[in-house]
Amino acid sequence: MGGSNFSGEEIHRGLNTLEKIVCSVKFTHGIHKELIYLSVINIGLSVSAIVGNTLILIALHKESSLHAASKLLFRTLATTDLCIGLVAQPLFVSCWISMVKEQWSFCRVLNVTGLLISHTLGSVSLMTITAISVDRLLALLMGLRYRQTVTLNRSYAFLTLIWVLAVVGSVIYFHNYQLTLWVGYLIISTCLVTSFFSYNRIFMTLRLNQTRVQNIVPRTQPNVIFSLNIVRYRKTVYNALWVQFALFVCCLPYIIVGTLLSHTELSPSLFLAWTSTGNLVFLNSSLNPILYCWRMREVKNAAKETVRQICFFI
């Protein structure tokens, strides 16, 4: 495999330096076949992400059992996944094709645009999933006050803040790519710690409440109703936990390679590894609709009904 190595310091000097290195004959010579393979894979993932998340958004619109604020968080997550398939992946496919065709000016514009958009959408997804874990904790701790406190307007305001933070964190790339990485590490660390605390507190509280109910409350009809509510709540927690786990598994290789990239020489092999692990992150946008349908029966039924209606009109 051809190509030259470039130091970590060299790719972090300023705006467009990374694009100038990657989008060059010297760097891409010998990896055209791999870039074509990556493009084909991404086209398939893009189509599945668009179709799957469109169905989920329609299903969530029809679903009425979820609290409006909680539904908004899942709709935001599905929207970012849809944008990954609709915008980010086509940009990278076009970038890789421009590398093969040696259209370097086009390549540089597509590469930086794709990075900014994918980093922004990825940050929003991660912070939204973290917000879902906090939302589930608040629902447990606040009880009847939850619906009065966690309102739709407050959720919109919080999501606006998430989008602003994600955009600002990505735009820092224009100043320094290394700084963008550190901001990303900070966001990831904060989200992981927050989610771990939320789920740990949830399961500890559920275990404590279950023990209290068994020891104090007699086995009467109200106790049965209480148990059914706990079962339903526990299911929503596991639904959110599965989505977060899938994102973590898909993002971990990309984070590891990205960390390696910031501390070692950039080579065509490392670039392909970085790009391939990025595909795993994109894969998450196609996996989430499957998880929704697997874990959320109401969403699954609404999605199946939507497919039936589409097939009927066709």
Description:
- The chain has eleven helices and no strands.
- It has helices at 17-22, 25-28, 32-62, 68-100, 104-142, 146-149, 152-171, 177-216, 221-261, 268-295, 297-313.
- The longest helix has 41 residues, at 221-261.
- Mean pLDDT is 83; it is low at 6-15.
Radius of gyration: 22 Å
Largest sheet: none
Strand content: under 5%
Considering DSSP H and I runs of 4 or more, what fraction of the residues is helical?
Answer: over 70%
How many helices in DSSP terms? 11
Mean pLDDT across the residues is 83
Q: What order do the SSEs take from the amino end to the carboxyl end, as H and E? A: HHHHHHHHHHH
Low-confidence stretches: 6-15
Structural class: mainly alpha
The total of beta strands comes to 0
Measured between the Cα atoms of the first and last residue, the distance is: 48 Å
Which outline best applies? globular
In short:
The chain is mostly helical and 314 residues long.
Q: Which terms summarize this structure?
A:
11 helices, 314 residues, globular, mainly alpha
SSE topology sketch:
Elements: H1 17-22, H2 25-28, H3 32-62, H4 68-100, H5 104-142, H6 146-149, H7 152-171, H8 177-216, H9 221-261, H10 268-295, H11 297-313
Helix pairs in contact: 3-4, 3-10, 3-11, 4-5, 4-7, 4-10, 5-7, 5-8, 5-9, 8-9, 9-10, 10-11
